[in-house]
Every structure is written in structure tokens, then in C-alpha cells.
Structure to design on (450 residues):
């Protein structure tokens, strides 16, 4: 399948939908979400089988949850024609499509990321071509076939959603150079390729969510939230909480709460080292650990853990650049650290983020506004999520006002073009009709410089 031919087909389809009304556009966007919601179980099963990682039940939750929140967030939002009149400013804002969007999607999110990107693209009157990870090509093709059946019913060209059916790195790279805009949700090499394509690009940075626990929280509830954040889909979500940073005076109580709720705690240096060597052989993440259960990771590391263990907690002696365990661990393994005061807690988080994850997110469990704001000012991240389950709420949730997405921009810290959650409003151009402001006046020099 030639990329040039795919882009030609996509561009022809985009020219058709560029003339659609807001109502027609929204009917397509709604359909993209509803198809995934209605087929959540079989799509989750295929994703687990093809990618060989994650948890089937969690993928069902993810399929349904993202379909709900994304459509609800886009429902009723204007993205076609005249968006708004600002009479006082004399500005009329007009939306115009960008064209053909190329989206590289990961095997960690083989259903909801293509769905999300398609919803954002078409909301702005664009078409989209998906370049899936090779370990998710069946997922992409199956999703496309489900969409085609519904697009036919709507009388909409199928080619607004195209897929590279036999994906390779060279094909993905070529696609990026041929489309009008690129979304790259995946590893660092893919994101770098997107930014090297010569086209406007939206990428992501690596996660390494630092979990700070203040001494004023309900420890039991905090443990439940953080375990859910780390264990969900066997730890492959970039927003999963990576660390427990707890006060020395409260440390044992915190760890006991985690253990009570399904964690297994290891502070034996030899056992910690066994996990270190397995998860990061040669200093790089072991693909055999990614997305595997706590029991499987422990077995491969040569350590026995109790049946039913949801998360493994390791206590390294050092943090930051002095220990590779400070990096993102894409499996249900956390590291734990003790702090004397809140400034030290934030310092530990900062040191770990400087190893990996700068620009992404921090999980704070605290009721102390001063502490929360101190961390917000000090830490180089785009999102500071407070008293929530980071893995499921960081990408937007009914409980907060973050834009629902599957692509989390990490700003200049993560070598990204945006430091917020990617949304539909990033994927259309805006023309501004500027007229003379009513009742304008020229200020005098004293007013200007005084």
C-alpha cells in the first residue's frame, strides 16, 4: 500500500467533509465513540491478545470510559464555520480544517488512541490516517471495519479514516512527511521522527509520575488510589503513579496501608537489585517486563511474591540519577522514598523527573494548599493531579477540568509543542476577521509609558 495513494484518497475524502455542517460532523464524531463503547469487550480482548500486555478487564473499562468522556467533552462544542463574535474587540473567529492528519498510535492503547485522534481530527473537518504499532495492526484494521459499516450508513466517505494495514517504521516516517499535521503518541523515536517530518506535530513525552503523600491525608484511601493508578492495565499507562514519597514519621503507616490493599513491600537490597537488573538490563527498560502482571514480573526477576499481589513496592537506597529505578517502570512496580519535610519530598520528585518524565505529571495526595502550590511552582510538569487516581483521571475525567485525551503534551521539558492535553481545538486553523473596535481611542504617551 503506497503512502502517496493513501494520502490522495484521504485528501479527497477530507474535501467532502470540509463542507459538512456542525451537526453532520458531530454525528460522525459521536459514532466514533459509540462504536468503541458498544464493542468494548471484543475490542479489549483483541487488544490484550495482539499486544500481549495489559489486563482485559481494564481495557474494557478504558474503552468505555474514554468513549464516554471524550464524546461528552466534544458534544455541543463549535468547530465549523464562525466560532464566535467578540463585539468589544472587533474580532470574528472562524474555524478552518487543517487537512489530512497522520497519527502514529501505540500498542499500549491500540483502540482508544486511534478513536480519540479520529474524533479530534474529524471534529475540525479533517481526515485521518492511522499508523499503528505493528503489535496493534489487527486492532486498527478491526476498528476501521467497524467504522466503515457506520460511515456507509451515514453516507460519509470511508476514506476519512484510513489505516496502514502492514505498518513499518519507514512507512510511518513517510506518512509523516506527506500529511498536513502529525500526532505521535508512542516512544521517543517515533516522537522525534514526527518533529523531524517538517510538518506541524503534536507529540508526547515519557511518563514517570511521582506520587507525593502529605501527612494530612487518609492513608487508607490514598493507598487504594495509588495502587489502582499503578496496577491498572498492568502499569502500561503513562499516567500511572510510579513512586510513593511519604513522610518518615508516617512511612510505616503508609506502607502498611499499601500492603493491606494488595501491595508487596520489598526493602531487602539484594531482592531490590534482582528487580533492578530484570526491569532495566543495561539501563534500558526490558520489553519482557512491560505490561506484565506483578506475579509475572516477580517470577521473571526470580523473586517469589504472595498470590494476589497487585503491586510490588521496592525501597531503593538512592533516588534520581543514582539509581535506574528512578525511571518509568511500565509494569506494576513502584519505588518508595521517605522525606523529612515537604521541600525534601518535592526535591526527591524533582530529581527523579530529571532522570525521566520531565514535563508529564505529578500525583499529589494532600489537603494542604500551600504544599500543593509549592509543588506546582517547583516541579517541571504540565499536570499536577490532586487527590485523584492519576492513571484514569490525568487524561481528563468527569471529576476534573482537564481536557479528555489520550495524548498528553509535556511542553518544552518533554520536547513537545504543547504543555497541555491535546484536544480538538488544536486540530483546526483559526482565521480572525479584525474590524475597527467600537469607541476605540489612541492613548497618549503618558498613559502608555506612565
Amino acid at each position: 500500500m503506497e503512502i502517496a495513494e493513501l494520502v490522495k484518497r484521504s485528501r479527497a475524502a477530507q474535501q467532502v467533509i470540509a463542507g459538512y455542517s456542525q451537526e453532520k460532523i458531530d454525528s460522525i464524531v459521536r459514532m466514533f465513540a459509540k462504536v468503541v463503547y458498544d464493542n468494548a469487550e471484543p475490542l479489549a480482548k483483541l487488544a490484550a491478545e495482539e499486544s500481549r500486555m495489559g489486563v482485559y478487564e481494564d481495557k474494557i473499562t478504558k474503552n468505555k470510559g474514554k468513549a464516554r468522556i471524550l464524546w461528552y467533552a466534544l458534544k455541543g462544542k463549535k468547530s465549523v464555520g464562525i466560532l464566535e463574535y467578540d463585539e468589544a474587540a472587533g474580532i470574528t473567529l472562524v474555524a478552518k480544517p487543517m487537512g489530512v492528519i497522520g497519527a502514529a498510535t501505540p500498542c499500549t492503547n491500540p483502540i482508544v488512541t486511534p478513536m480519540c485522534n479520529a474524533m479530534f481530527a474529524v471534529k475540525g473537518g479533517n481526515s485521518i490516517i492511522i499508523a499503528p504499532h505493528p503489535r496493534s495492526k489487527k486492532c486498527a484494521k478491526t476498528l476501521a471495519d467497524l467504522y466503515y459499516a457506520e460511515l456507509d450508513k451515514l453516507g460519509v466517505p470511508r476514506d476519512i479514516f484510513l489505516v496502514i494495514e502492514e505498518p513499518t517504521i519507514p512507512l510511518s516516517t513517510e506518512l509523516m512527511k506527506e500529511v498536513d499535521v502529525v500526532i505521535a503518541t508512542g516512544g521517543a523515536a517515533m516522537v522525534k521522527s514526527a518533529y523531524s517530518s517538517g510538518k506541524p506535530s503534536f507529540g508526547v513525552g515519557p511518563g514517570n509520575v511521582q506520587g507525593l503523600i502529605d501527612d494530612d491525608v487518609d492513608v487508607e484511601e490514598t493507598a487504594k488510589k495509588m495502587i489502582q493508578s499503578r496496577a491498572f492495565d498492568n502499569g502500561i499507562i503513562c499516567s500511572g503513579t510510579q513512586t510513593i514519597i511519604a513522610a518518615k514519621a508516617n512511612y510505616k503507616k503508609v506502607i502498611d496501608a499499601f500492603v493491606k490493599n494488595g501491595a508487596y513491600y520489598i526493602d531487602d537490597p539484594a531482592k531490590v537489585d534482582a528487580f533492578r537488573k530484570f526491569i532495566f538490563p543495561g539501563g534500558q527498560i526490558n520489553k519482557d517486563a512491560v505490561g506484565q502482571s506483578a506475579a509475572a514480573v516477580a517470577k521473571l526477576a526470580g523473586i517469589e511474591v504472595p498470590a494476589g499481589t497487585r503491586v510490588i513496592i521496592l525501597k531503593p537506597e538512592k533516588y534520581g540519577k543514582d539509581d535506574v529505578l528512578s525511571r518509568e517502570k511500565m509494569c506494576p512496580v513502584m519505588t518508595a522514598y521517605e522525606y523529612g519535610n515537604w521541600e525534601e519530598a518535592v526535591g526527591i520528585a524533582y530529581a527523579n523527573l530529571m532522570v525521566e518524565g520531565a514535563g508529564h505529571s505529578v500525583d499529589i495526595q494532600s489537603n494542604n494548599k500551600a504544599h500543593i502550590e509549592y509543588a506546582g511552582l517547583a516541579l517541571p510538569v504540565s499536570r499536577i493531579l490532586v487527590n485523584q487516581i492519576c492513571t484514569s483521571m490525568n487524561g481528563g475525567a468527569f471529576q476534573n477540568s482537564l481536557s479528555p485525551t489520550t495524548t498528553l503534551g509535556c511542553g518544552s521539558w518533554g520536547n513537545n509543542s504543547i504543555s497541555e492535553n491535546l484536544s480538538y481545538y488544536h486540530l483546526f486553523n483559526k482565521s480572525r476577521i479584525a474590524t475597527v473596535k467600537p469607541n476605540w481611542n489612541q492613548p497618549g504617551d503618558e498613559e502608555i509609558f506612565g
Notes: The first helix runs from residue 3 to 17. Residues 3-204+416-434 form a domain with the Aldehyde Dehydrogenase; Chain A, domain 1 fold (CATH 3.40.605.10). The two ends are 65 Å apart (CA to CA).
